[in-house]
Specification:
Blueprint lengths: L12 H15 L5 H16 L5 H53 L4 E3 L4 E3 L29 H9 L21
Antiparallel strand pairs: 1-2
Length: 179
């Protein structure tokens, strides 16, 4: 295929049928996740090795991957748009809550018994204001988060250092570039 327009309509019926079979396997409640993965890999392998040209099928799969990537980007953009709208609604709600607190204070009310909701106001604990940098606090007032520096561990392991507490996995992962 030399066409650059990678839409669902440009993909063969075979790919759509394969996707439907994969979706059915993924939705199966009778199989464990490991069994699903094995069956999906087996199904995909059988499809790729069927009587037609492997290169053509690989190209169809590549087009379908590009289609899925485009859908993913569109969904990410929509999710971002919805996050912005949610943030705006959250800010509006916060502003209205602050307004209602001010107005209840102004009229000296701490409780309102409405028909559909009840409002009550209570005083919060005072905020803590530090006079020093958090690093200067006594140890009993600090939390320490320890996390591995994977970049440095990988460098050490690749430079033939023998670390008894870490090793590089034997898994061979590959990436696929589709242009």
């Amino acid at each position: 295929m030399t066409e650059s327009n990678h839409t669902l309509w440009n993909i063969s019926q075979e790919i759509i049928e394969l996707e439907n079979l994969i979706n059915q396997l993924q939705d199966s409640e009778e199989l464990s996740e490991e069994e699903k993965e094995v069956k999906i890999n087996q199904l995909f392998s059988e499809w790729l090795n069927a009587d037609t040209n492997f290169d053509e099928k690989a190209e169809k799969v590549a087009h379908y991957i590009k289609y899925l990537e485009a859908i993913t980007e569109a969904r990410k953009a929509e999710a971002k748009r919805l996050r912005v709208l949610a943030s705006m609604s959250e800010k509006q709600g916060t502003k209205l809550r602050e307004y209602l607190i001010r107005e209840m204070q102004r009229v000296n009310k701490t409780k309102i018994e409405g028909v559909t909701c009840k409002l009550s106001m209570r005083k919060k604990q005072p905020s803590i204001c530090l006079k020093v940098d958090p690093k200067e606090l006594p140890d009993e007032f600090k939390r320490v988060k320890i996390e591995p520096n994977l970049t440095e561990i990988r460098k050490a392991l690749k430079s033939q250092k023998d670390l008894e507490w870490a090793f590089l996995s034997d898994d061979e992962d590959y990436s696929l570039t589709i242009k």
